[in-house]
Amino acid sequence: MQTLDTNRVITFTCPDSSGLVAEISTFLAQENVNITEANHHTETQTGEALLRFSFKELGTVKTIDEWREKGKYLEKKFKGTLNVYDVSHPMKVVIAVSKFGHCLQDLILRTQSGALPIEICAVVSNHETWRSFVEWADIPFHYVPMEKGKKQEQEAQIRAIVENSEAELLILARYMQILSKEMCAEFNGKAINIHHSFLPSFKGAKPYSQAHEKGVKIIGATAHYVTTDLDEGPIIEQSIERVDHSVSVEEFMNIGRDTESIALNRAVRWHAERRVLLSGKRTVVFQ
């Protein structure tokens, strides 16, 4: 039975070794698949090899567990880690947002147009600002206010929403609350944040106003994985724009928000397509 609509991705990380790519290619060819993409990168400083193959099954369809079982010999032979994913269906995600909704709007509209391979199962917010827009998009909206001294309870509600949605990714789309170290650890590699990291010298309130006063020439944003180190997680994507003396504070903010939306959209798409592999504190992104 031909099953061209069954899309799989295999990722493999191990110490680099002669014949590694050929071995995996041969393994897939023997299983009667059509390889649609093949990517390989070696980190020169550590000698770690990172590989990603996407393919379509042409004969009998195997379950993910069957693929993992068949690939165990690769892990043993090359002392590596094999992961197998089914990317035939959009990845389920939950989005967290506060008052600024430009990233939320962008993600929803791109998803509705088919440009993003995700299914937005729910939106959670500590404000009611975006309820009507989210419900207009026919997405469940959860108001989870932040009350002093009740951070644990609030995060427990967010965890429950993610779990009940069977979501694989939590997207912090300008969610202006700092997650606890416990929650960051729990969502390691499963939560993406966006922030104005191209303005590192301007912390606190009104960073774009501070940057404007200093005559900054480049502004931008960074999408990264959430870790227990605040805003220092592995970087997935960055977007920048040049500005000059003629640009007003208001336009600074508009340009900055555009870069935030662009960087976050790309990071979410690449994560959902299993194109992002972690190597220590760095990411390898097979675009």
SSE diagram, text form:
Elements: E1 7-15, H1 20-30, E2 33-42, E3 48-57, H2 64-70, H3 72-78, E4 81-86, E5 91-97, H4 102-112, E6 118-125, H5 131-136, E7 141-143, H6 151-165, E8 169-172, H7 181-186, E9 191-195, H8 207-214, E10 218-225, E11 235-242, H9 249-272, E12 276-279, E13 282-285
Parallel strand pairs: 5-6, 5-8, 6-7, 8-9
Antiparallel strand pairs: 1-3, 1-4, 2-3, 9-10, 10-11, 12-13
Proportion of beta-strand residues: 25-35%
Mean pLDDT figure:
91
Strand order of the largest sheet: 7-6-5-8-9-10-11
Low-confidence stretches: none
- In percent, how helical is the residue content? 25-40%
CATH class of the largest domain: Alpha Beta
Distance between the termini: 31 Å
Main sheet summary: 7 strands, mixed
CATH superfamily of the largest domain: Formyl transferase, N-terminal domain
Characterise the protein shown here.
The chain has 287 residues and is an alpha/beta fold. The chain has nine helices and 13 strands. The protein has a seven-stranded mixed sheet, sandwiched between helices. Strands 2-3-1-4 form a four-stranded antiparallel sheet. Helix 4 (102-112) packs across helix 9. The longest helix is centred in the last third of the chain and has 24 residues, at 249-272. The radius of gyration is 21 Å and the shape is globular. It starts with 6 loop residues before the first strand and ends with a strand.
